[in-house]
Structures are given as structure tokens and as C-alpha cells.
Amino acid sequence: EVQLLESGGELVQPGGSLRLSCAASGFTFSGYAMTWVRQAPGKGLEWVSAISGTGGSTYYADSVKGRFTISRDNSKNTLYLQMNSLTAEDTAVYYCAKFQANWGIAFDIWGQGTMVTVSS
Amino acid sequence: EIVLTQSPATLSLSPGERATLSCRASQSVTTYLAWYQQKPGQAPRLLIYDASNRATGIPARFSGSGSGTDFTLTISSLEPEDFAVYYCQQRSNWPITFGQGTRLEIQ
Hints:
The complex is a heterodimer of chains A (about 120) and B (about 110). Chain A has about 120 residues and is mostly beta strands. Helix content of chain A is about 0%, strand content about 50%. Helices cover about 0% and strands about 50% of the residues of chain B. The interface between A and B is medium-sized, with 22 and 25 residues.
């Protein structure tokens, strides 16, 4: 079964850092680009970042550029999101998702999400 | 950045009725557009990709159409489980963007 399982979300103070992980199973992880999408409480979906199958190409939303870093370890079938200089505006459920192809149009598999709360 | 505008914001219909949801892009995305369904407390689910292709396991009552800047998601006959929030998403240009969503509610 194709599955994504996020972890690492927690309560963190403004200005703090957090690393999210997404463990993948059931498919050839290195063959697919991966992405992070977030959803603030009661709000819509916001794309955050994406990374190619090899990890050689990365993209970021302007709202997180310079603060967040996406990476992957294909030997561990795991995707990461390093988040620094967190603000209240980063409070959201963070989903990892798999592109349909290495750089497909859509995200066909999603994790269940992990909640990040930035508050003092 | 390509802005996706969905309309209406809320659509109130009854089971068995036809639903038509719109997504308009601020510039052409050719057919690099997808549709998702999200229910409360759940992750989004891919319905349509490449504007008109149904994802695996999606019922035939869901269909997508359009190209360029104007897109439509149609649900031919609403089932009770179809009442949810629907998002469009483009992958034509970076950054990837989502529409603000259409809430489909039971009338």
C-alpha cells in the first residue's frame, strides 16, 4: 500500500525551529518529486515547497523562502522540511504529498498531516 | 504568481442534483490543472488531473473540462458523500498555487 506518514509537528515558540519528516512506503521513493502543502486552521491549502526525485531541484513559496529548507534521504525513503524563524503565520497542518510523476501536474498521494503551532 | 479564483465560494444543492464548480486562472495554465476534494479532518484527495483526467478510483460522476484560463469541475448527480470543499491547483508555473476553495453544502 502506498503511504506517507508525517511526524515532527508540535508547539514551538516564535523564532524557533522545527524539522518535519515524512516517511514513504509502497512506491519507489526516489522516482518521484515530493512536496509540502500546509493549511492554516479554517483556511485553504497553501503550497510550501517541492523537491525533485534526486533532490537536485527545489522550489519554495515566497512566504517561506530563506526560512524553510526541503530535503530528502532516498536511502531512508524520507522527506524533510526544516523550518526556521517560525512565526504565528506558520501555524498550520503540514501535509507531505507525492507528485504523480517526477514532475507531474498533481499530487496523488497525501499524508494525514502533522500540526505545527507557533505560539508563546 | 498565477492566481486561481474559484466560484462560487459556497454552493448549496441537494443529493441527485448536478454541481458545476468554476476555476479561473489569472493567465493561461494550458491544461496543467488539478482538482481535489477535502472533507473535514481529512487530507485532500485528488479527483482530476491534466484538467480532464479522472484519478484512480474516482467515480465517473466527476468530470473536469477546460483549458487556458477557464476550468470546470462537474458532479453529474450528487451523492451524500460528495458534500465537501473542492480546490483547484495549477502546476503550469512556479509557485504552484491553489484556488481558495468552493464549499459544496447540502441544501
